[in-house]
Amino acid sequence: MGLTMQTIDLGGEWTLQQSDKKELNKATVPGSVHTDLLAAGKIPDPYYRDNENSLQWVGEVGWVYTRAFDIPENFLRQGQVLLRCEGLDTLATIKINSREIARTDNMFRTYEFNVGDILKRGRNTIEIRFDATIPYIKKREAERHLPAWKGPHDVKGGNWLRKEQCNFGWDWGPCLVTCGIWRPMRNELVSAA
Fold first, then answer.
1. CA 98 to CA 96: how far, in whole Å?
2. Do residues 60 and 135 make contact, with C-beta atoms less than 8 angstroms apart?
3. Which segments of 72-133 are extended strands (E)?
């Protein structure tokens, strides 16, 4: 028997909320907090003039992405089901049906998790909570300084994370510390090893 694979794409419309607030906003996956807040009219264009200055708070708070999705009746009986996350930026906690399945801390890698025993037929929910990176790196930097070049906003310690370093500013770009599901995500049904 050969390998067969079915997928359930988890891209598209999600909801986004600041972790300490109740207000929900529409979000699009793949994407990022900045693009979702901009699309919802919650922030000005971060690349226009000095708008970067008023948007530093985005990296200081946590963000939560959620959505519901359906699992067909026969999907779970055909093989191993993997949640494949191709890009989570960066400090993420993943829950399916309110059950924590993983924590991630590296923007640059793909993660796969066996979720066959967590999913159920019909309606399921997924939540991905992104912890704020700036408080994390400030704590680590206080423990031990790591030298690095920084731009005008001088976010020290970004190199404590496996995260795109230009988020913390660069000579050619603004300091916009973002997070989100920046690459595709899906459930994969694999019928053979």
1. 5
2. yes
3. 80-85, 88-89, 92-96, 99-104, 111-114, 122-130
Phi, psi of 103 (to 5 degrees): -130, 140
pLDDT for residue 1: 45
Helix, strand, or coil here: 53? helix
Question: What pLDDT is recorded for position 150?
Answer: 62
pLDDT at 116: 92
Which among 71, 77, 105, 109 has a CA at the least distance from the CA of 186? Answer: 71
Q: How far is CA 191 from the centre of its chain?
A: 28
pLDDT, mean of residues 69-83: 89
Q: For residue 82, what is the DSSP state?
A: E
Collapsed DSSP state (helix, strand, coil) of residue 61: coil
Quote the percentage of the chain above a pLDDT of 90: 75
Burial class (CB in 10 A: 0-12, 13-18, 19+), 22: exposed
pTM over 0.90: yes
Residue type, 71: I
- Asked if residue 12 lies in contact with residue 29, where contact means CB atoms within 8 angstroms, the answer is yes
Q: Which domains are present in the chain?
A: 5-131+182-190 (2.60.120.260)
